[in-house]
Design goal:
Blueprint lengths: L9 E6 L6 H12 L3 E3 H10 L3 H11 L6 H12 L7 E5 L5 H19 L7 E6 L2 H9 L1 E3 L6 E3 L26 H24 L3 E5 L4 H21 L2
Parallel strand pairs: 1-3, 1-4, 2-3, 4-7
Antiparallel strand pairs: 5-6
Helix pairs in contact: 2-3, 4-5, 5-7
The structure holds adenosine monophosphate.
């Protein structure tokens, strides 16, 4: 199917535990619909690397696999969504992670996003990728990232052609700090503890769509595209 350039898509939220394939699916959605991929984890890591004020405040929590405070993350997301490239729509990956962030996002969209870009209200479509808990650990411990092009590999499930080397640019692959085994347990526990209320928040509002993340990646992508297409048709029709 042709890529999108002008159709209004609306806000898309992708939920799922660490290792569910949110990063991969977000990149595919962003490319297909030409909307920005807003990953709070990526923005935070960039800030840590550049030693910004935000990065210094977030670093310790991230290294321990804990969540960064709602205030810091919400301010950061607001800055990003106010960029003009978000007006047709955007995909949020890794946000919201708490019920407070979900409530903040609805209020933010009502106050700023709906008014500027549209005459009718459009709450996000929320897609939850569900994956068997035991498979997550394998996905996470095998994950390697290319520091140059951000391509994601898995040494067990999707290995590069040459050991630990990026197929595209030949860079040495790295293990993200928060993919280290000791951090993974805490990240999964934090997800269960804090994000379950987010799933419930959207479920109660009838806005949650679940996709089976244990299927092959192209199948997961196909289902996600179908959901977004029907949502975007509603956005265009003002329903
Ligand atoms: P991720 O790459 O999405 O797994 O995020 C990596 C780390 O960044 C997390 O373990 C948290 O420490 C932090 N982080 C990312 N998104 C959020 C968020 N929405 N709220 C709080 N902390 C976050």
């Amino acid at each position: 199917m042709a890529e999108e350039t002008s159709r209004k898509i609306g806000p898309v939220v992708l939920l799922g535990p660490p290792g569910a394939g949110k990063g991969t699916q977000s990149q595919l959605i962003a490319r297909r619909y030409r909307i920005p991929h807003v990953s709070t984890g990526d923005i935070l890591r960039e800030n840590v690397q550049n030693q910004t004020v935000l990065g210094r405040q977030a670093k310790a929590n991230m290294a321990r696999g804990e969540l960064v405070s709602d205030t810091l993350v919400c301010d950061m997301v607001a800055d990003r969504l106010r960029q003009p490239d978000s007006l047709r729509g955007f995909i949020l990956d890794g946000f919201p992670r708490t019920a407070a962030q979900a409530g903040w996002l609805d209020a933010f969209l009502e106050q700023e996003f709906f008014d500027k870009s549209d005459s009718h209200k459009r709450y996000p479509i929320v897609i939850c990728i569900r994956v068997d808990y035991n498979k997550l650990s394998l996905r996470l411990t095998g994950r390697r990232t290319c520091p140059a092009c951000d391509r994601i590999y898995n040494v067990y499930l999707k290995p590069p052609l040459a050991d630990e080397i990026c197929d595209v640019d030949g860079s040495k692959l790295v293990i993200r700090d928060d993919d280290r085994t000791e951090v993974i347990q805490e990240r999964l526990a934090a997800y269960e503890r804090q994000t379950t209320p987010v799933v419930e928040y959207y479920q109660q509002k009838g806005r949650l769509v679940s996709v089976d993340g244990d299927q092959p990646t192209p199948e997961v992508t196909k289902q996600i595209f179908q959901e977004i297409d029907s949502y975007a048709a509603d956005v265009a029709g003002g329903r």
